[in-house]
Design brief:
Shape: globular
Oligomer: single chain
Number of strands: 13
Helix content: 25-40%
Largest sheet: 6 strands, parallel
Number of helices: 10
C-alpha cells in the first residue's frame, strides 16, 4: 500500500483557509512545465534533481549539511526562506469582498534586508494579483515556483483540502504555469510544492512527465494563523541547520506576524554565520554533493 508522506505539521493548520504573498500595490489551455520539451536556455541551466526510483518525480527537502567551507574558504552556512502564496480556486468571492491574500510589507522587508527567497505561488493567486506576481518574478532577488493552480490536495485526506483527481493532477500543475505566463512572470522555476505538503507515489508518478522537482522543507515556521511573533521566531531559529529549507507564508489575513518574524530571524541567522540563498542554489549545491 502506498504510504502518504506528510511533512506539513503546523503549516497545514491552514487547511482550506489559505493565504498568499505579494508586493506593493480561469480556465486556460495548460502548457508544459518549464522543464518539459524545448525549454528556454535559462530553464535548461536551472538545477533540478534526477528522477527518483522507477522514474518518479524527485523530492527535495534540504541542501547539504555543510558549514560553508570550500577549498579552505568560508562562505557561510546556507539557508533558504520560502514563502507559499496560497489561494484556492474558489476564494475569489473572499478576495472580492476585501480579504487580502498578499503582504506588501513582507516583500518590501525582504528587499530592504537583501534576502533572496523562493515564492511558491498558486496559479489562482497569480490571476488575482498579476501585477504583484510580475513584480516578484522580474526581481532577481526572488524566484517563483509552482504551488499548483487550485491549491487542492494531490492526495485524499489532506487537512480538509478538496482533492484533485488523479487524471487532473498534471493539468492543474500546468495551468499554474499558464497563469504565470499570462501575468508576465518570466522563467518560473521547474519546482513544485504540493498543497498541504501531502503526496504519495501516485502523485509523484502523475507529475513525472512534467520534469519538475518537488520541493518540501525541513523547518516549519508555524506562522500560519500565529499571533505570537516571538514563538514563531524561536521555532525557526531552533529548527534551522545548514542547508535548511524554511516554509513560511506571506498574507495579511492568515499569517499576520511573518514580516515581524523575518525582521528578527534574518539578523540573528546572519550573526550565526548563515547566508540566505534561493532553493535553486540549494538544489545546485546538492547536485554537487551527489
Amino acid at each position: 500500500m502506498i504510504s502518504l508522506v506528510r511533512r506539513a505539521t503546523a503549516l497545514c493548520t491552514l487547511g482550506a483557509a489559505l493565504t498568499a504573498c505579494g508586493t506593493t500595490g480561469a480556465g486556460q489551455t495548460p502548457r508544459p512545465a518549464p522543464s518539459a520539451p524545448a525549454p528556454s536556455p535559462s530553464a535548461s541551466r536551472t538545477p533540478t534533481l534526477a528522477p527518483g526510483p522507477a522514474g518518479l518525480t524527485p523530492v527535495f527537502e534540504h541542501g547539504p549539511r555543510t558549514d560553508g567551507t570550500k577549498d579552505g574558504r568560508k562562505d557561510g552556512k546556507t539557508v533558504a526562506l520560502t514563502f507559499d502564496a496560497d489561494m484556492t480556486a474558489d476564494q475569489g468571492p473572499r478576495a472580492a469582498a476585501g480579504e487580502r491574500f498578499d503582504n506588501p510589507r513582507l516583500i518590501a522587508t525582504l528587499r530592504r534586508l537583501k534576502v533572496p527567497a523562493t515564492v511558491f505561488m498558486t496559479g489562482r493567486w497569480a490571476e488575482e494579483y498579476p501585477d504583484e506576481a510580475r513584480s516578484i518574478g522580474r526581481d532577481p532577488q526572488f524566484e517563483i515556483a509552482n504551488h499548483s493552480y487550485s491549491h487542492y490536495a494531490y492526495t485524499d485526506d489532506c487537512y480538509g483540502l478538496p482533492t484533485v483527481a488523479k487524471a487532473d493532477m498534471r493539468s492543474d500543475l500546468e495551468r499554474a504555469y499558464t497563469a504565470f505566463e499570462k501575468a508576465g512572470v518570466p522563467n518560473p522555476m521547474p519546482y513544485f510544492r504540493f498543497p498541504g505538503g501531502c503526496y504519495d507515489d501516485t502523485a509523484l508518478k502523475e507529475l513525472s512527465a512534467t520534469g519538475v522537482t518537488a520541493v518540501q522543507w525541513d523547518v516549519v515556521s508555524g506562522d500560519a494563523f500565529a499571533t505570537d511573533a516571538d514563538a514563531v521566531t524561536r521555532q525557526v531559529l531552533d529548527g534551522v541547520r545548514p542547508g535548511s529549507v524554511v516554509v513560511m507564508h506571506c498574507t495579511r489575513s492568515a499569517a499576520p506576524v511573518t514580516e515581524e518574524v523575518v525582521r528578527a530571524v534574518v539578523p540573528e541567522l546572519r550573526r550565526q554565520g548563515y547566508r540566505f540563498v534561493k532553493v535553486s542554489q540549494l538544489i545546485g549545491a546538492a547536485n554537487g554533493h551527489a
